[in-house]
Fold this protein.
Amino acid sequence: MKLSEIVRQLGGQLAGEDVDVIQVAPLDIATVGQIAFLSNRKYTSQVSTTKAAAVILPENVDVDYAGPRIISANPYLYFAKVSTLLNPIPEVKPGIHPTAYIASTAKVSPLAEIGAFTSIEDGAVIAAGVVVASHCHVGANVVVQQQTRIKPNVTIYEGCQIGERVIVHSGVVIGSDGFGIANDQGRWVKIPQIGRVIIGNDVEIGANSTIDRGAMADTVIEDGVKLDNQIQVAHNVVIGAHTAIAGCVGIAGSAKIGKYCTIGGGAIVLGHLSIADRVNISAGTLITKSIKKPGTYTGIFPFDEHDVSIKHAVQIRQLGRLADRVAVVEKLIKQEKS
Amino acid sequence: MKLSEIVRQLGGQLAGEDVDVIQVAPLDIATVGQIAFLSNRKYTSQVSTTKAAAVILPENVDVDYAGPRIISANPYLYFAKVSTLLNPIPEVKPGIHPTAYIASTAKVSPLAEIGAFTSIEDGAVIAAGVVVASHCHVGANVVVQQQTRIKPNVTIYEGCQIGERVIVHSGVVIGSDGFGIANDQGRWVKIPQIGRVIIGNDVEIGANSTIDRGAMADTVIEDGVKLDNQIQVAHNVVIGAHTAIAGCVGIAGSAKIGKYCTIGGGAIVLGHLSIADRVNISAGTLITKSIKKPGTYTGIFPFDEHDVSIKHAVQIRQLGRLADRVAVVEKLIKQEKS
Amino acid sequence: MKLSEIVRQLGGQLAGEDVDVIQVAPLDIATVGQIAFLSNRKYTSQVSTTKAAAVILPENVDVDYAGPRIISANPYLYFAKVSTLLNPIPEVKPGIHPTAYIASTAKVSPLAEIGAFTSIEDGAVIAAGVVVASHCHVGANVVVQQQTRIKPNVTIYEGCQIGERVIVHSGVVIGSDGFGIANDQGRWVKIPQIGRVIIGNDVEIGANSTIDRGAMADTVIEDGVKLDNQIQVAHNVVIGAHTAIAGCVGIAGSAKIGKYCTIGGGAIVLGHLSIADRVNISAGTLITKSIKKPGTYTGIFPFDEHDVSIKHAVQIRQLGRLADRVAVVEKLIKQEKS
């Protein structure tokens, strides 16, 4: 694809020769036919030595490079769009694999693609342009809307709803029972989980993530939410539109996460909390109470060389005593002065 | 179902009109035909405005509500039981799906239900009333006892034993090899994992949890244990009866967890520890040594606005110096006084 | 197997009667025909009372035991090798299960074993001696090299490469899309993930772990790496040879982990970091910056009884104030002295 054609479709400003590019690549390993980008100015020095055929550059960057280039206000976003042009998602191949099992009352669009050994249970609806790859279980009365792509080995429990253009990666479980138990003199009694999972449009769910169905009302993932791998979303959680959550995050029951939030990897959000819109939670942080104002929130215990760190732990245990000692000293000084 | 019929089966005290209810719902969204409950008195004000057909109330609650109601000492438990009456688990449909594969020496009860594309390997025993849903792998010589329900996409390695009335959710792996390796001059040598996983009765295991087989002896999950999603149970762990563990918890090898314990989400229990009966571990807590007394144990680093939190981390690194400074001050004051 | 035959194959020094052993077992539960070992001297007292037929002992141990024994410099490693002799991995049974689906252009060695309901997509190559168990999805153009064992329910996305003698446990997902998104005025734009996952020889990957494909370049797991269960490896991570990682660890994008490292359970390594060779990271530790020197690194917030721990959290929030108070005291004393 010629740079001029890219600029025609995506905007930006072309400078230098109008070369052809066939793939994207990082600055330091790009080669013939590849287009690289400079997003983080830390890597500016790589531009002058890159072997890329062309580079996407930010405005007003001071760089020794006169080769083919596209100037963009947001090179990383521009690169994302170029890569999407050069790497379109595979076309849907409508049809049902001969080994798949479709229950008699399931409705599968003739424009959908169903993979090997996939089972679509009674009453399920699979819309046009959907791909359900191999080894998936689509439970009774599940609805999967158009152009959604479900990768191999995904399980969707009965009654759940998946929006349009959603991507669900392998190993994901949607609609399993929430962890609802009541204590009866030491023994646990299971509470039937009768809600559903409702997933909006343009959501992506990473490999082996789990989203539990609601206890009574539904668990809701709003439009544009992006979930990385191995995320646990408990029953009755609501994740607001366009929130992005990194891997290994756990969100406990009935937590309400706002819109346009980000949550770093390994963070835990306790149950029955509300997180405002536009909140950023740092990786590894445990959120123990509601957050009402936008901003970045962090709780990271510092790591250190082992022996040093062990001392920190001891000192934390002695903090109360240290504060008491300071109070005694303060009192003594006050007495002396009076 | 009439309230009087519910009271006949479950006890409690009926007051107001003996109406019919068909479903449970939360106080704030319940409507015609639905029964709600008041468990946490924080929500008492919702009772007077609820549109529920009936409410389960605690004893001695001061509430402006004269509608149909059931008085119970433990409304949450009562609600759990009402919901179970109104939402019985689906009946078993005995039979083997035509796409399933049953090895010639496997013994599947004619009263069991086997789903699409499920494989039952040689020597496995599936008892009466069991459901093994679609896409499951039941390894050689596995025993699944009566009335257990195994959801789609579950893997059970050879030789493991599952008790009665167990529920295993999708994506669970039971009996995979424990992480047993011995170091040989920098390289790791695998130690064969020849134990099994033994799961008691009335256990529930959440989606994508993993329970490793023992290295030599067995990994044991006792009766009534409830595990949420994405829990990792390493080899030779023993989890005592009626313990409940929330999502994303990791339990390292050979840890022994007591009976009637609870473990909050995202906690980690290190290996070769013993946790006494009736211990509660808070979410996000790392347990680094044995706990010998019942009680609640916590280790939560507080989160804060990012800039504030970063300062806390710096201050923790300076704790030793701060303590030294206090000691100097104490010494100076002592000198002055003498 | 006679002890003399074991010593012939594995070295070590035989003492006492040359008995037959058929299985390994721990000292405290071993019985007739079983061989136990003493690795941690904490358990020395168990040797004199063991019912084991034979014991593997370290050199120079002071123990009251005159029974059949093998003396080894490293009893744990010796035991691992004895167990491997007594518990050889099951032989490959070459052949394709009649329910499996092999795409027309896939190349499956006649010496490979393919399980029930497994699909091998176009262009995939399965070498001799490989076992792909039931319910696996082997994507297009995947290469699996000789003697690798893939357990049931594994998903390998298109184009990934698996080395020789690798073991992949159930529920593992290899090659799912990395979490690559660019922000466009609040909405997230997906970045195509066009790299692969390349896995070396002698790697083991635990149940339900996930390894994402690279964004542009590849994600690489080098030879001899051992991964426990539920580990998340993000796009473009490189894990150096012979590194061992315990369960529930998350490694964020583009992190480079050195060779011969160990990472404890539940640790999180942030993205774009470098960890030197021979680094040990403690369980539950959050690594927020690169580590350049070998050694052990820890960041563990201490747990305590709940009420005590809550006070620690409060005190951490007041650390700045405490430091200020100490500074005031120091200044007052200095003034007095002058």
Remarks:
- Residues 95-297 of chain B form a domain with the UDP N-Acetylglucosamine Acyltransferase; domain 1 fold (CATH 2.160.10.10).
- Chain B is about 15% helix and 30% strand.
- Chain B touches chain A through 73 residues (CB under 8 Å).
- Helices of chain B lie at 3-10, 45-49, 75-86, 306-317, 319-337.
